[in-house]
Write a sequence for this structure.
DNA sequence: TAAATTGGCGCC
DNA sequence: AAAGGGCGCCAATTTA
């Protein structure tokens, strides 16, 4: 039904269940997308409770909205329920937070269920509904798009249509989400994981809502420095080239330096001052264009960046981050110090906990390679121990440790070590002789992936290979990568439950960043470490390194 | 001219 | 025999 000022009371009285399906039609794209679109709000809200389905227009351009006081009461009512169900639920929760919605006790997101069911497939509600529930939802949605088109509107401008035009489609969405949830609970290979992922998705939504603070003075200073360095470098380049040139144009660089490409690898190998200067310019320019510049635009009025964390962002089971992508902030070893712009809020400190050599430890667990397990069990330095076994330098050992799990070949390893392919092949052979478990498991994983159609992680989560764009060759890497994803995911939820005073603000795959009261760092750190290292399922010891600081760019080790 | 692709590069 | 896994984003370049 379409809810109006007149029938509002009647509609509200029909919201009786403790779990609601809630879907917003927004007046923009995203509550935090200050960069891509204006920060906007709910235009209308579809709600399903038991047999009731209604659309509450709140900001439709042509009027016919419910009263502000009525909307406040609707939000109040939503704050009383324990569960909110939808497709991509945290989007709606964070959108409605702008209108006073509290953090819900529990959320259910059909999107994470779909991702669990088949991480290769589409995560769109209508496509999934057609596929799993039968019917023609996609086609029905066509009617809405038609309506938008004839009014010259974009898909995110439904609030410009009359409430009565939007209501049937909005109501359809909450009905579909509820049916899809029921379907997933019945058909998923593991409903337990669906619940787990829902808790995790909720936590990621909370992280996005919390955000991370930028120190504007630092940002300005670093941005100015980078701009100055970039333009000085460009002047030097143009002097050498004898005229204007765009160092970001791979075509122009190739032409000037007679190289096959303009990658860092090629240019740095040249030992040519012209190539070095190009690299200098590109690095400073990237700092401006990919970090400092965008960060300014992503900040809200409190200088907080609300990056997105997507639980359905990768096929391996890792999360992805975007707008901006906070999993790709340059390390402090680069010349530009981007991490320095992130500061803990006043009275708080960052506490960063990294799983040490997570991938190789996970490989030791999955392969049961005797020597690898021995190295970790004895607590030796991995790279040195591997190098010693192989009779090579630590650098070679380290490079191989880092690349072997990606299935690197002799050619690529040779380039990365700066040795002939033959020599690189010798290294690989030596490695495989010393650590035979890896290659054996790679073959096995590939076989299982192509024959059974999926591989399974320790948590029970599956990575499917029964489709064209999933390559069984990636099975081994995916089980390692995904295994870490599962470990970190479960640990994050457990941490939130048992150490709520450690507020998680970032996850960078095998690393977690918390914000805690500055005077409680010493007390909380050991608890975090203990919980993170407690992985009884893992047959290889798990180790966590911890750091603390006021800025992400200035962290000191915690013993 | 806008959309799509490519080249390149940041992270684990 | 040979085989570089998973992302997001920017600017340049090509395509429709």
């Amino acid at each position: 039904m379409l809810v109006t000022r007149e029938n509002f009371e009647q509609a509200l009285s029909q919201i009786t269940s403790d779990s609601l399906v809630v879907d917003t039609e927004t007046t923009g794209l995203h509550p935090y997308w200050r960069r891509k679109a204006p920060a906007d709000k709910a235009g209308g809200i579809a709600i399903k409770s038991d047999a009731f389905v209604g659309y509450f227009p709140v900001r439709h351009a042509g009027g016919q909205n419910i009263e502000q006081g009525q909307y406040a009461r609707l939000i109040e009512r939503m704050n009383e329920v324990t569960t909110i169900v939808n497709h991509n639920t945290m989007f709606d929760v964070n959108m409605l937070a702008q209108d006073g919605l509290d953090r819900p006790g529990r959320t259910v997101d059909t999107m994470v269920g779909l991702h669990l069911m088949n991480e290769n497939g589409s995560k769109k509600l209508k496509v999934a509904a057609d596929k799993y529930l039968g019917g023609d939802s996609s086609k029905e949605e066509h009617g809405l798009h038609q309506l938008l088109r004839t009014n010259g509107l974009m898909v995110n401008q439904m609030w410009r249509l009359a409430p009565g035009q939007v209501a049937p489609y909005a109501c359809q969405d909450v009905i579909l989400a509820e049916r899809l949830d029921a379907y997933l609970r019945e058909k998923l290979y593991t409903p337990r994981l669906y619940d787990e992922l829902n808790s995790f998705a909720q936590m990621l939504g909370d992280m996005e809502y919390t955000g991370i603070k930028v120190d504007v003075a630092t940002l300005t200073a670093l941005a100015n420095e980078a701009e100055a360095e970039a333009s000085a470098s460009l002047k030097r380049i143009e002097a050498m080239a004898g005229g204007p040139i765009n160092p970001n144009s791979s075509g122009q660089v190739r032409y000037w330096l007679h190289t096959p490409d303009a990658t860092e690898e090629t240019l740095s190998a040249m030992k040519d001052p012209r190539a070095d200067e190009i690299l200098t310019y590109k690095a400073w320019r990237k700092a401006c264009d990919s970090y400092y510049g965008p960060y300014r635009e992503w900040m809200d009025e409190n200088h907080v960046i609300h990056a997105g964390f997507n639980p359905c962002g990768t096929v391996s089971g890792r999360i992805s981050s975007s707008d901006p992508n906070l999993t790709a902030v340059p390390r402090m070893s680069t010349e530009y110090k981007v991490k320095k712009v992130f500061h803990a809020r006043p009275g708080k400190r960052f506490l960063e906990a990294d799983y040490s050599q997570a991938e190789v430890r996970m490989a030791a667990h999955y392969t049961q390679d005797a020597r690898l397990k021995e190295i970790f069990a004895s607590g030796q330095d991995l790279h040195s121990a591997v190098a010693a076994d192989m009779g090579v330098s630590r650098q070679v050992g380290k490079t191989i440790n880092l690349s072997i799990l990606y299935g690197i070949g002799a050619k690529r390893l040779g380039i990365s070590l700066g040795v002939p392919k033959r020599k690189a092949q010798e290294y690989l052979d030596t490695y495989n002789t010393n650590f035979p478990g890896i290659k054996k498991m790679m073959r096995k994983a590939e076989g299982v992936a192509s024959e059974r159609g999926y591989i399974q992680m320790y948590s029970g989560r599956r990575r499917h290979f029964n489709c064209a764009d999933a390559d069984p060759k990636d099975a081994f890497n995916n089980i390692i990568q995904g295994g870490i994803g599962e470990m970190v995911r479960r640990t994050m939820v457990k941490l939130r439950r048992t150490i709520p005073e450690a507020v998680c603000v970032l996850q960078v795959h095998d690393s977690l960043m918390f914000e805690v009261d500055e005077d409680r760092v010493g007390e909380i750190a050991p608890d975090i470490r203990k919980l993170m290292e407690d992985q009884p399922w893992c047959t290889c010891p798990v180790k966590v390194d911890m750091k603390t600081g006021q800025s992400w760019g200035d962290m000191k080790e915690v013993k």
